[in-house]
Every structure is written in structure tokens, then in C-alpha cells.
Known about the structure:
Radius of gyration of chain A: 23 Å
Structural class of chain C: alpha/beta
Order of helices and strands of chain C: EHEHEHEHHHHHHEE
CATH architecture of the largest domain in chain A: 3-Layer(bba) Sandwich
Shape of chain A: globular
CATH class of the largest domain in chain A: Alpha Beta
Radius of gyration of chain C: 21 Å
Oligomer: heterotrimer
Largest sheet of chain A: 5 strands, parallel
Number of strands of chain C: 6
Strand content of chain C: 5-15%
Distance between the termini of chain C: 46 Å
CATH superfamily of the largest domain in chain A: FAD/NAD(P)-binding domain
Structural class of chain A: alpha/beta
Strand order of the largest sheet of chain A: 5-2-1-13-24
Strand order of the largest sheet of chain C: 2-1-3-4
Amino acid sequence: MKPVLVIGGGIAGIQASLDLADRGINVHLVEKTPSIGGVMAQLDKTFPTMDCSICILAPKMIECLRHHNITIHTQSEVIGLQGNVGDFFVKVLEHPRSVDAKKCTGCGLCSEKCPVKRPSDFQAGLGQRKAIYLAFPQAVPLTATIDRDACLWFTKGVCKTCEKICPANAVNYEQIENTIDLNVSSIIVATGFEQYNPKGIGEYGYGRYKNVLTALEFERLVCASGPTSGILNRPSDGGIAHNIAFIQCVGSRTQTNGYSYCSSSCCMYATKEAVLIKEHEPSSHVTIYYMDLRTFGKGFQGFVDRAQSYWGVKYVRGRPGEIIEDPNTKNLTILYENTEVGKVEKDLVDMVILCTAAVPHRDNEKLSSVLDLRLDEFGFFDTKDPITAPIETNMQGIYVCGSCHGPRDIPESVAEASATAAKSAEDEFRFMVNK
Amino acid sequence: MMATPRIGVFVCRCGINIGAYVDVPKVVEYAKTLANVVYAEENMYTCSSDGLNKIKEAIRKNNLDRVVVASCTPRTHEPLFQATCEEAGVNKYLFEMANIRDQCSWVHMTEPEKATKKAEDLVRMAVAKAALLQPGDEPEIDINPSTLIIGGGVSGMQAAISLADQGFNVTIIEKEPELGGTLRTLDTLFPNNMKASQVLEPLLQKVKDRPRIKVITNSKVKGVNGFLGNFDITVEGENVSENFNVGTIIVAVGSDSFKPNGLYLYGQDKRVITQAQFEELLKTNKVDAKSVVMIQCVGARNEDHPYCSRICCNEALKNAINAASPNREIYILYRDLQTYGVHYSKLEQDTKRKGVRFLKYQPDKPPQVTAEQNGLKIELYSPTVNEKVELRSDLLVLSTPLIPVSDAKELSQLLKVPLDSNGFFMEAHVKLRPIDFATDGIYICGTAHSPKDIGESITQALGVASRAAIPMAMKKVRTAAIMSEVDQKRCSGCGTCIEVCPYNALRKNDKGLAETIAAVCKGCGVCGATCPEKAITMHHFTDEEIAAQGLAALKEN
Amino acid sequence: MSAFEPNIIGFLCNWCSYTGADLAGVSRIQYPTNLRVIKVMCSGRVEPGMVLNFLESGADGVLITGCHIGDCHYITGNLHTRRKYSLLQKLIMKTGLEPQRVRLEWNSAAEGQRFANLVTEFTDQIRAIGPTPLKTSGPNPDILLNIRAAKEAADSFRLRALVGKEEKMVTVGNVYGGKISEEEFTEIMDEAVETEFQIHRVYLMLQEEPKSVKQIAQVLGISPRFILEYMVALRQRGWIDLKEAVEGTPLYVAQ
């Protein structure tokens, strides 16, 4: 039996890998960043159950690490493909960590002493990390990595503090990139998505007004492992935010400044974040400004009903036209048409959260050309048919799951991941039988 | 009589992580003074290949039969050390860890003396438990590589096809005379207006073409006994009464449609119909209304059915597009339009381009429908214009939610799987195990799980084909030896343990006494804590072991 | 004289709270050194009798932690923990031992800071209450008797059966479809707890030396009428018997 290649180590990639590995099929799990986990590792809680995200994710991450049938390749990307289903030849490029993974124990001392700071991707830019760093506390693998663009040794030929201080002698500046050749029977693409950058929507002031955040930034703010340990300190003055507004469809459902489609989960994650605020500060006021309240999933309507009746979250149907910042207090005024009463209204809040669109990953184009996959008009991977072949692509033996082919939530991504594992298993069986 | 345990203790420095705060040599010396400890050493990194070799060597040289490692957290490293023990001939359940890093040195960095004392206490506790540990026998059960699929609609058929293509035998049981389920009643499908028959026919053909798939129609499941790998099934139908054994079960029984009797004059006026009936008219080209009004969320997102049925908006849009024509007015009255994602957003745009009009209504001010001679009058309060709007139509189409099938409760009791508060089948975990039941070996897909469209049903059906294949492909399943055991002499058959077990891992044997199904038990310990007779032993977390740990903690050293 | 350093035992469930404690470590959040952790797979493994055993043996405090309600890795385990904890509190209230020495908290795997805060707070609280009256070097005899009786009561068939069935009876109902309200159940449980506690107190006293109804009533401060009831119950269970009559007053002895 040949192994299967899974590209992308978020929840979808992890689930597909585990399904295959658990039934005896070997998996090469290729992940671009230093750790598997994806966006789900950055979330505080998940709707509609309010499960702690990393709590339910971390055991699966560790299972991948320990599984005899899974080989994880982090800081790696697929750069070449040849062959056909049953016999694909894949080239994978491993970027060097500059740290020996066999020696590194993840103690974090190097990061403590490193003098160079950079914005942390994991903290959505709200916090910092060092030039040598661990992706996050529960990272898998828990191995340090050096950002060579930031590191003083690589840029200026000085420092080397991490090498001196590492008790396990794990730092290795001589590490070079490495190309691996894999021969696999099928490929599962699970590369996930990105968040829309709302800088382009001038009326909302993102990037200019300190207290306007994206939902992912807010997720880090409210998370116990985030830059403020879960205290709702607003960026401008550190004061506790008490009056918070969520604006839906930022960069979604629009013909200008964004994408025309609906991003599927924002109504629900806004409700989730609203409830989180209420849990942290019961006396706070939270309002969600929406267009259509999308509560179509299992348990969603009940969750929203409880958010309203029990937690007191307010929902206003209206798409804000503008946000104005008070130059002294840095509070924000939202101007919108309340379509429920047909009037233009103004609301004063101390923090605004923009629920931004889930957009195609910037690397989709590159990967699509390597794998010869079609992209849709937006840049998501296209599927063969949304009804009869919802996880198949134009290439036989290459399947997609999760947000890489359109915005969707975690349960859908997990079910899809299993679905792609079934297709890979079918291929595996077919080729075994036909040998 | 049991031999005296020979415990080896390995105290890790973990570089400076433990070593800089805890006096490791002192802890090693202390460990040597403990009862049953015949060997103790320190390591720089116990988890390094060097450290692991040292453990194996020490086991061999000193005839150790239990191992305690005082280092980091068992969550990451226990399996590694357990595997090492096994390699040196020590059963993995004779291994215990003391967490002197994540829960000691790292959190008491300013109190090294107290941290050292705590490390000694934790080692003493681990040693006390280790002395009582018993070797564990991981039970293996054989898995019959065949599946029963209950329900022969699109989900059931798709799951069957995938499983057959993975080499497994499948039996589909269908209560109707034919396979196909709801697909048979549909005309076109969203988002791309594909004909339902284009989906149905290939599936029927594929099922027919696969000798591994057996189909029993006109029948229902009447009995289910057993557990993962070994379910005994009784099936009964008109001319059928069968008994067979399967390894896994998939529930794919679909859903019904809510009939809005009495709502908006449905049942009283023949111009008021459901979307399904509208689709039937479209299929047979019998729509001649000049004006069609559709009302969404009829009997949904309210007290009766407090959920959104996901597909009704898109179904309405699809039917509206198919009914759209230059001399026909179509209005869709909605609360929130559930046109989520890429494909349905496009469907919404297409529908608007066809001239279909959308009017929002508020749930506390629903449309009022009155029957008049020349048509139906529909009044609604439109918040956008803040006034009452009056529409006239010759056809009123009501979008109603999908509801659980009428025999869902019966099936749930047969399989001993739960239903959620809306009567749909409840999965093991909403986020991470959406298509598994908590009971091992049983899976759920399609609209029996919750309302969804055909594409989503096919995805879930493929998903369960993967989930069910896992134990079947491995042919055997090994489970942890952390499980309950019922002392048959002490059990009085009260059945309380069975009540509290969420996995149906306990059952009454033919003596009326409780016994554990080892392969299914997850070792949570709730039955052990519950048993009124104290007849249940929780292996690896026994009453004695827990007491020993706690009393060791309280001992002055 | 050194300050009082409490000895605190903590039950941490494998999935949420143990992981949360580890996270506090990974994040280097500092907290007092007084906690000694016993890992269990689920907080539902923890029995009132276990906790009472540790209190009897001199623990200054016992902390029980588990997953938040709704998050239990074993789905319903922590619902039973809650019920058992309620029983535990009822029993402790009868012993004279401060009920604040025991605490139940939910802590998720992501709540490292919360765990550290919890340990700090609880340790401070126990410090403030002071050393346990049951310290091994000189335990208060009355409280000791009571704690032992509470422990035996907690392990009795009746209380274990009641608390084991509580969750189901109050939410889903029994085999006949009958449901009991929380209030009704509390009434039943309170009565059972009182009876079992007293019965075991009497029994423990009789294990020390034979006594008459009047003597026991005096020591325990309970009306002889109730003591007689308990004696009858104990005789029915076969645990005690009549020893002899001294000056016309029957003495009972443990079997």
C-alpha cells in the first residue's frame, strides 16, 4: 500500500490523517507553518457548544505526532507533482528551522533570551514573539524555529545567543533546506483559508482606529492564552471594553471591497464572541449588526436564542455605513440604518469588531498550478460537482476538504476530512486489488 | 503471595527546566529511602534516546518490575516511557509518572526548597501507587468487516457504495419498497438545478453493480444486540425475517417534512401548498399562477421547531427560478435568508436577477393570509418601509422544516443511541465527532443527523464510510486496559452502573449481574464511584491506589 | 514558629483540569506549593468516601477539579461529580469540620491562569481557616468520630445508590417514566444522609465499647427516641446485638 499525502495541518488535515492512519494507511502530513493546528488553535472557544478550542484540538495534534502511521513535515510545502492517481510523485521542500528537532525539548529558553521581537502570527499580530520562537505553547512539534529574516545572526552576522544558551545544544545555523520525494497513491488538500484584511474598507477605520479589531484579533484578546490573558483591554488605552459592537459581512456579500459570497460562519462566531464577552464582563453591552442572521447549522438557532434571552446580546439588522472615532476618548460611533424600524441611527461604543470574510489562502494559486487544480472565480479550490462530487476535484485522486474550497465551519470540515479519507481508501483498495 | 515490588525511580533534570529549581540529586537520594524502591538515578533528559536506554538497562540490571519517572507531563510523554518499559519486558501498566516540571519546577521557580520538597512528595505518591499497580491486559476484539446501513436513501446508498469499494460487505435495509428516499420525490436540486434523477439513477446502478452490497427492502430493524465488531441484527419485513451479524452500523434514515396543517390556511384552501407540492407541479408543468408568494420559516425557528432547517431558503430560491417567467410575479417572504457560502450566495444573486422579489418579515408580526374569491390576500408588516404591505397571489407556497422520521425514537432505543432536543440523532461530539455516535461502532449521516442538502448528505455518507472502515480495516480493535471490572460475587444486580455509563459498556449477563464489555469501556471510573455495593474495580485507578497516593501525600517525611 | 503550610490534595481529571494545570506550567504562572495532585481519568471517579478518608487522615483541604459542564470528555461524568459533591458537602456539614476545606471547581484545558488563581486562592483560604482539627498529632475526638461516621455513611449502599441514581431520576426519570423534582429528591437525600450518618455514628461508638441508648443519646446530644430507632436499624442489619442488661438498662455491642 502506498501512503497518502495530506497537504495542510489544520483540523481538516489532522482529521483526514488520523482517519487514514487509524486504519493502517501511512500518511505524510505536510504543513507550511512551524506547527500543525491551523486556525482552530488560535480560537478561544467554538460555537455552538462553547468548547475550549485548543482543548479539543491538542489531543488530536498529539495523536498525529505519536501515530506510527503519520509523518509530519512542518515548514514544508509541495513544489512538484507528477504521475496519476495510484502513483503520484510529489516533491516536498522542507524549510530549515535552524534547530535540530531531535535535540530540542521545547523548553523555550532560547526565545526568552533572544533580543529580537516580531509580531506574533499566532496572536494575530496583537502580541509578539522573538526571532527564535515556539509557535504556541501546545505546538506540535514543540520545536523552536528561527525566522531568518529577523535573526541577527542571519541578517547581520552577530548575536548567536540562542546557540550559547540552549541546554540541549539544539541550535544549528548550518541547516539547509531539504527536498523530499514522495510516492503516494492520492492527495488530500486541506490548506484552509485566510481572513480578509479590512484595511481596504476606509469607512470602518481598521488600521487607523486602534479600537477597531478583526474577529480573529478579538479571539486572541479574549483567550486565556492571548496577549492580555483574556482581559478585554482595549488597544488604545488598556481600559476594559464595556460597550462592544460586532459588524457582520465585512468583506462578504459585497460587490465592492471584498467578495460577493457569504462567509458562512461569521454570524455564529460573532454570537460566540459576544457570549464570551458577556461571560468575561456580565455588565457589558454587546450588539451585533447583521444583514441576515445565518443560523442554519445544528444547534445554531438555539445558541443564538440563548445569546439573546439569557445573555442579553442585542441583534440589530443594519449594515453600518461608517465608523467615526472620537479623537480624545478613542471611542467609536457607528452610523447605520436600522432596517427594522427604517431609521438611520448612531450608536456609541468603545470597541468594534469586524467579522471579516473567510477568503482563499494566498498560496492557493501556487499550489493549484503545482497540482493542476482548478480554482473557482474567487480563488478557492473548485470541486467536480457541488452535489454529486462535493470533495472531488478535476484531478483524479486529489481531494479537497475544509475551508480550502469555500468557507465552512469545523463540524463540516471534520466530516469532509473523513469523506476524503474514504475516497483515498477507495483508491488504495482499487490499486491494491488491481496489482 | 505476590512478590515484593521492585521499583526503579528515574528523576529527570530536563536540562535546567527541572534541575535549576529542584534539587534533583536530593530527590534521587530520597527516592532510595522509600519502601519498595530498589534503584534510583537521575537523567539529564530521560526522554532522549540516551535516557530511554538507561531505563532499559536499569530494568535489566536490577530486575525492576515497576518504573517511576519523575519528569514532565504524562500527557505528552507517558506513551513513550510505557513503550520503553515494554521493550525491556515491563508491562506498560506497571509504569507511573510524577509531574515535577509542568506542575512543580515551572510553577515554583522562586521557591526551590519547597519545590524540592514537593518533588519528593510527588515521587513518594507515585511510588506508593506503583507498588499497587497490576499488569494490564489490553483486550482485543475481532471486528466483522461488514456493515448494516439503516436507510436506503442518498446517504445510505452513497455510504454503501464507498464501503463496498473499500472491500467491505454491506447490507442496506430500507423500509419502503424501493431505494431512493427523498430523492425520489424531488425534481431538481440546488445549487445548480441538476435533475434529482441524475443523482438517483447512477447511485441505484452503482448499488446494483456491487455484489458486496445486499439490499433488503420493505423491512425494518427489529433487534440489535452486541457491540462494536459483533452486532447481532434481527430484521423483519413483509416476507422477510433475517438474522445476521455485522461489525458496524450506520444510521441513514433521513427525515420527514413538516405538514403545516392549519398554518396560513394550509389544508383549508387548495391554493396553499408546500414547497414539495410546488415542486411536483413544476415537474409536471402544471404551474399556471400569475402570482406566487412563498413564505419561509413556516413552523420553523419557533417554539414548535426551534431550529433552522437549513435548506428551505435555497429550495425556495431554486423553485422560484424554475417558476420565474416574464408574466409571473414571485415574492419570497423571509425572516433571514440562509444563502450561506459561495454556491448559495450565487443562487441568491441569480434568483434576484430573475426578478424574484424579497420581503423581510419579523417573527412577531407574521404575514396574515385571507382567502378571497379572486385570490389570496397576504398582508405583512415590512420593517424596511415601516408600513403594511399587501400582496395578492393565486398560489401560496409554504416552506416548512425537515423533521425527524416518526420512528426515530424507536430506532434510538433499539440502538441505545441518543436523540437531541429536536428529535434528531445526537452525535458523539458536535465539533470533532459529528458523524460518530458515542457508542463505538455506530455512525450517523444525512438528514437523520440534521437538515442538510444532497451534497452535504453525500459528504457525510462518505465520511461515515471512512469512520466505519477504521475498525473494520484493522480487523481487530485493542482497547486500553484502563477499565472497570465487576466482582460477580459482590454485585447485587441493581443496574445503577449500567444507568450511569455513557457508552453502554456495562450489561447484565445471564445471571442478572453486571459485567463490563472490555472493548467498549473507556475507563472513566463513574461506574466504580457509583456502585452501591462497591463491587467494581477500576483498573489502574483503584480505590486502594488512589488512597495510597493521597495518604502518601499526607505523610510527613 | 513557622507559619502554617496547608497540606492540600487535588483531584485533577485527565482531560481538562490536568491539562489546564500543565498549561499554567508551560506559561510559567507561579502559584503556591501546597497542592498534591492525584490524577483521575474523570472527576466522576471521585467518591465522597475518598475525600472524607483524606480529611480524616489530616488533609487541610481537598480540591476536586473537572471539565466544565457540557465539556466532560466522558460526556456525563461531571454531572455525577456535581451530585456526589453535593452529598459530600451535606455530610461534612454534619461533622463540625469546616465545609470550606473542600471545593469543587471546573477548569478547562485552556485555563492555565485560572488554575493558578484557583490554587492560590484555595491555599490562602485554607491558611486563613487554619490547620485541620484532625491533624494526625492530636485530632479532635468528636470531629474524628463524625468524620469516620460520615465516611462510612458515604460508602453505605443506601447513599451510594441514591446519589448514583440521582442524575437520571431528576432529569430523565425512572423505568416507569416517573420523574422526581430536585426538591423532592433533596428531601429524600437529606433524610437518608441524616439517618445513615447517625446510624454510623452510633455504630462506631458501639465498636469502641458497649453502651446503652441513654449513654449514646447523652454523648451525641440526640433524643433517645431517635437513638432507639437507629439501634433498631443497626440490629436489623445485623451489625449490633444486645450484650447484657446492666441495672435494668440494655447495653448494645457491635458484632
